[in-house]
Structures are given as structure tokens and as C-alpha cells.
Design a protein that fits this description.
206 residues, mainly alpha, 5 helices, 2 strands
Amino acid sequence: MADSAELFGLIGVVGGAVLGAGATMLSSALQTRTAERTRRRSRAEEEMRRLIALRKSTREALAYLSDTVEGLESGRPGSRDAFTAGWQAARNAVTDAADMTTIDGFGFAQSRSSEEAMRGRLQPSRRRAWPGRRRQIPGPVQGRPGIGTSLDAVGFAVGEALRARDLGTALSPEDMRRLRELMTRAEEGRSALLTTLLDRMEDLQE
């Protein structure tokens, strides 16, 4: 009888130890999964902020150029010095935001030379291919320049137009047509960029 009691007691101790160890392992596994979900959520939120910054900076840069072109058309463009300072700040914001997205595996063509380099290395991003580490912001697709180059082209043309005005040379209808054409290309470039950004933002929210 005493042996049976000792046996049952031993079984109880062993069983309790096993259950305790199992509970500890389960708790540890749950904590690990929770920590990993928290890390993934944190990374997603940080990437979302970077994408929003790129969307915002390109929108503001394009709006600044558009306002200046409209001023040229209406005969109230402002000074060239003021434009140069404002444009440099807007363009720097785009550069900074684009550079930050490299953390997430983006390739962003900031100039004609970088477009040419990326043309041979990367394909335009597609949503199905997003899990890969290298994603390209829409750039030199079908011979069209990317948003960075398009913005620079408009900025340069506007600066030259303001310089000519300061020298007393009026803009011709052809000059304005060319400016509007450059603006259209920049808007198309940003539209392609926005499509990619919104696709990724949707992925991050899933």
C-alpha cells in the first residue's frame, strides 16, 4: 500500500514536471511568435512611413513646378532666385525620401545615368513579384524617363525660362508648349510611381 502511494506520488510529481515543462515551452513559443509579429508590424509601419514620405515629396515637388509654370503662363512667375531656392529644397526632399526607400530594397532612378544602369539590372516592379528584395520604382520603361529625370527636366526648363525673362526675352508659344509637355511627362512619371507605392501600401496593410 505504501509502495502504491509512493508510486502514485512519483507519477504525480513527474506528470506535474512534464506539464510544467510543456507549459513553459508553449509560453515561450507564444512569446516568440508574438515578438515576431510585433517586429513585422513595426517594420511594416516604418516602411509605410518611408513610402508616404516619397509620395508626399514627389507630390509637393510636382506642385511647385506646376505653380511656377502657371505663373509663367499668366505673366506672374516670381523671381528666378526664389524659384531656385524653393526648387532645390523640394528636389532635395525627393532625393532624401527616395534614398530612404533603398532600405526596403527599392531601386530609384535619380538621374539619366542611374536610369541607364538600372535598365540592364532591374525590371519594373510587379505586384506578384513583390516578395523579392529588389523592387524598382517605375523608371525607364518603354524609353520613357523616370520621375527623377522628369522632375529635373522641368526644373531646368523653368529656370532657363525665368532667366530669359530676367534678360528681357519673352517666352514664345513654342516655349510654353515645351514646358507643358515636360510637365505632362513628369505627371505621368509620378502616376506610375504612385501606382507602385499604393500597391505596396496595400500589401503592408494585409
